[in-house]
UniProtKB/TrEMBL annotation:
Name of one Pfam family that matches: FMN_dh
EC number: 1.1.3.15
Domain FMN hydroxy acid dehydrogenase: 1-320
PANTHER family documented for this protein: PEROXISOMAL (S)-2-HYDROXYACID OXIDASE GLO3, S -2-HYDROXY-ACID OXIDASE-RELATED
EC category: oxidoreductase
Cofactor(s), by name: FMN
Protein name per its UniProtKB record: (S)-2-hydroxy-acid oxidase
Primary localization: other
Subcellular localization: Peroxisome
Annotated catalysed reactions: a (2S)-2-hydroxycarboxylate + O2 = a 2-oxocarboxylate + H2O2; 2-hydroxyoctanoate + O2 = 2-oxooctanoate + H2O2; 2-hydroxyhexanoate + O2 = 2-oxohexanoate + H2O2
Listed GO MF terms: (S)-2-hydroxy-acid oxidase activity; FMN binding
Organism encoding this protein: Vitis rotundifolia (Muscadine grape)
Length: 320
């Protein structure tokens, strides 16, 4: 009898064995040479501790508060799209896991379950991740629906004017399922005989003109606090605070967008210093162990986000 997995890497191997190659490559892969995908993990390994001894640790409280919501530990669930490719219950199962762990789930804009389905599945605190489409009315409708259904914040992804070149998806001719939040609003059934239909879909619907001025547009359509996801420099961190965001997520999209950008843990301290405590700074990418979480906290993050597929403890790269 095989031993039970005891860490995230072992869960990832189980996923590789269980999923069709096209789907596993989609969840686990990065852009181009995948240099940053490897670096996201390896950069953590180059950070070591200076432990202090004889400190009373008999009572430990790992809880923290994010935008006023108390969670059991500084580990949140990052947005991961197309989760029904990995589990028939998709994002609903992940939401229930978040509720059971008393943490925050960020629902992907490109989910395979609707905002309504996830909202009605459990009492987890939920944020909505947002891509801005060329058809702004569609993005606005989903944001406002999330607000009506009790979502607590919007996480605007800002590093995806175009989809990164994910060569495994091109080779596998990755096919996107219908995305339920957009049924009746637009078709996501776009084929690409020469490569990934996901890339073709993104080129068709994502608004490549998105810029800083559009934060004002977003604040005009919702009362929810806005976090931006995809910050890697002090300059962008300062600008984000100036335009009034409520939080920053240091992220390179799990190394799925622009290869050869810094590992997120390498960029974290620069962003934290620039923000100066004015808004919370979170981090995603490369987190595989509790020691990685501790390293991020020691460098100034308030919490980390991990990609968890359908209540497994499975932490893969971010989807879409």
């Amino acid at each position: 009898m095989a031993a039970e997995p005891v860490n995230v890497n072992e869960f990832q191997e189980l996923a590789r064995q269980a999923l069709p190659k096209m789907y596993y490559d989609f969840f686990a892969g990065g852009a181009e040479d995948q240099h940053t995908l490897r670096e996201n993990v390896e950069a953590f390994s180059r950070i070591t501790f200076q432990p202090r001894i004889l400190v009373d640790v008999s009572k430990i409280d790992m809880s923290t508060t994010i935008l006023g919501y108390k969670i059991s530990s500084p580990i949140m669930i990052a947005p991961t799209s197309l989760q029904k490719l990995a589990h028939p219950e998709g994002e609903i199962a992940t939401a229930r896991a978040a509720a059971a762990c008393n943490t925050i789930m960020v629902l992907s804009f490109m989910a395979t379950c609707t905002v309504e389905e996830v909202a009605s599945s459990c009492n987890a605190v939920r944020f909505l991740q947002l891509y801005v489409f060329k058809r702004r009315d569609i993005s606005a409708q989903v944001v406002q629906k999330a607000e009506r259904y009790g979502f607590k914040a919007i996480v605007l992804t800002v590093d995806t004017p175009r989809l990164g070149r994910r060569e495994a998806d091109i080779k596998n001719r990755m096919v996107s399922p219908q995305l339920k939040n957009f049924e009746g609003l637009l078709t996501t059934d776009i084929s690409n005989d020469k490569g990934s239909s996901l890339e073709a879909l993104a080129s068709e619907i994502y608004d490549a003109s998105l810029s800083w001025k559009d934060i004002e547009w977003l604040t005009s359509i919702t009362n929810l606090p806005i976090l931006i996801k995809g910050v890697l420099t002090c300059e962008d961190a300062i600008k984000a605070v100036e335009v009034g965001v409520s939080g920053i997520i240091v992220s390179n999209h799990g190394a799925r967008q622009l290869d050869y950008v810094p590992a997120t843990i390498s960029a974290l301290e620069e962003v934290v210093r620039a923000v100066g405590g004015r808004v919370p700074v979170l981090l995603d990418g490369g987190v595989r162990r509790g020691t990685d979480v501790f390293k991020a906290l020691a460098l100034g993050a308030q919490a980390v986000l991990v990609w968890s597929l359908c209540c497994t403890s499975l932490s893969l790269s971010p989807s879409f």
